[in-house]
Amino acid sequence: MNRNHDRLHRDEQDLRSVGMTELQTIYSDMGLTSDELDLLSVPRHSFTVSFPVKMTTGRTQIFTGFRVQYNDARGPAKGGIRFHPEMSAEHASELALLMALKCAVVNIPFGGAKGGVVVNPMDISRRDLELVTRGYIRAIADYIGPFKDIPAPDVYTDEQIMAWILDEYERIRREHVPAVVTGKPPELGGVLVRRYSTALGGVHVLEQALRERNMDFGGLRVAIQGFGNVGENAARILHERGCLVIALSDVNGGILDPKGLDIPAVMEHQKSTGSVVKFPGARELSNAELLMTDCDVLVPAALSNQLDANNARAVKAQFILELANAPTTAAADEILFERDVLLIPDILANAGGVVASYFEWSQNLSNDRWSEEKTLSRLQEIMISAYNDVGGRCRETRCRMRKAAYELALKRILHAEKLRGNL
Question: What DSSP line would sit under 43-98, residue for residue?
Fold first, then answer.
């Protein structure tokens, strides 16, 4: 496994441990009954499949895949498919639970799922990747569907892989079923907003947080760690709204200009050189230094566990918008809360992606196409409503926003279970 795979694996392990540790504490604080704990402790459905694929070399190889539907009390299960050499059933189960919570936080009618295949996509050809994808879908076709479980892109999967999933599923069913998968190319029923919805959803909740404090985007100084799809779109959107994006970074390092970076020019530089570093006129800084930049808003949009007990007291930002998964440790979360830094947690801040997937699913079911204006308006409405729900609980219980988000999600899931007669 190369260095990027090692880093990704560590990041995923961190995400799981942070999420599960937080949940165990919240279960205790909420005083859940033994029945409630039992219901939340195991996934509703979990299965492992082994399937043969005749590769382009002529050799037949056996692959192992997983799919976990953790909870479907609020609606069909929803969650990504990832292709990764370290994929496991336990891994899928924990991430499926976190997905159920994320859907409940933004109050969309989905449960949580996750799945994938044990494969390193970088070790096989694109054609072989298609064959593996189709083999996996043939193996799980009876367990997914628009009213059962709706997959989506995740680690090392993309729009094209979702198109292969759609095509293979429709071949099996012998009918068009566009709502079986989201994150598809727009030509096959996907929505363009999906490509930048995670970043845009985060911007909407940040805007609401600012509005509560009689602030706006004009001249707001922002530092963004990570310049992948989410970080780049966040930088672009915030720049367009009048923010001064003063610091950016990627895996190679960061850049700083206190007067504000020219984001379109940085995007062109990154496209031509492969990195944001050495951008003309900007000072270089490390990823660690970026976290302590003198700014108003810090946006971790890269790896997990970036803010910890060692650097949380040095953070100068007034707001933290977690567009990455689990970028803040539990210890850092407490320190930042004590310092009155408003931390908008990942489970809320980066939920715009699944909201856009919900829109795609809804349109596919009705064979409809929403206008871009309607899609953007609905995304804003749902994200702001979710922020207000979490913020209200946070103020009511005087707790961290992350804890409020988890508690709200758990209450919604357990209420649905109670209405169904399961509690």
Answer: -SEEEEEEEEEE-TTS-EEEEEEEEEEEE-TTSSEEEEEEE-TT--HHHHHHHHHH
